[in-house]
Amino acid sequence: HYGVWAGTPIGYRKELRNTATATPHIQLFFIDDTVAAGGAGFRHFTAAINVKSKDPESRLVFWYYENFQHSIISDLESLPQQGFYPIPNNQISSLEGLDFVRTDGLIPNILGGGGGQLLELNLPGPDNDILDKLNPILNRAIEDRANVYLFGSQFNFSGIHEVHMNQGSLPNFENGVHQDGAIIVQYGDHWEAVFLAFGSQRLPTDDITGLPQEGSTSLAVLL
């Protein structure tokens, strides 16, 4: 089920090899206000963050807002406690799903690329690949015990995945509108946001199905 999971990041592991069933991911470990069985501390959860696509165009698109300001912040601040909140949510009607194209002001000019960076998984040299970009963001959030808000799809009640754009893919992948993923981090004095997509995903998309429209263009080309 699509939604947002509010928690506190405590560590991560890089799983960077392609296998028969999985592409490279960062596994971000976090806790929330859920107490483990028997009251022995907090339950641990996992966010699976894609860092490479299985498509021949394997690069990811990375948008990073170091001082994120958007109306979604007030909705996140209003959540009563940490935990997973399905969207749509009967108790919190203002909480809406993210849509990189249709959520006003989320990624300005995304149909023109939105200033994103098209990044390989891992390259020699500093600050030039997706790992170089994500590592300091995650490390800082962990060190500061920041609040993290993970948009995506819950799996097995133990974690969240599809923390990336979920529209504009081929029909054999899930597509939809207002169900894009994100990593939004709350610090004491500011907010940050990371949005990810696959370079092969195409825009614009259908307003109902989220499938690429006829004549759409891949993000790799837009960038």
Summarize the structure.
The chain is mainly beta and 223 residues long.
Q: Mind explaining what this structure looks like?
A:
There is one protein chain. This protein is about 10% helix and about 35% strand. The protein is mainly β and about 220 residues long. The strands form two sheets. Strands 1-2-3-8-7 form a five-stranded mixed beta barrel. It has a two-stranded antiparallel sheet with strand order 11-12. The two termini are about 30 Å apart.
Which outline best applies? Answer: globular
First-to-last CA distance:
31 Å
Number of contiguous helices: 3
Largest sheet: 5 strands, mixed, barrel
Low-confidence stretches: none
Total number of β-strand segments? 12
Strand order of the largest sheet: 1-2-3-8-7
Assign a percent range to the helix content. 10-25%
Q: What series of H and E elements makes up the topology?
A: EEEEHEEHEEEEEEH
Whole-angstrom Rg: 17 Å
Oligomer: single chain
Mean pLDDT: 93
SSE inventory with pairings:
Elements: E1 2-15, E2 25-35, E3 42-50, E4 60-65, H1 72-77, E5 83-86, E6 117-119, H2 130-143, E7 147-155, E8 159-161, E9 182-186, E10 191-198, E11 202-205, E12 212-218, H3 219-222
Which key features would you list for this structure?
11% helix, 223 residues, mainly beta, five-stranded mixed barrel, 3 helices
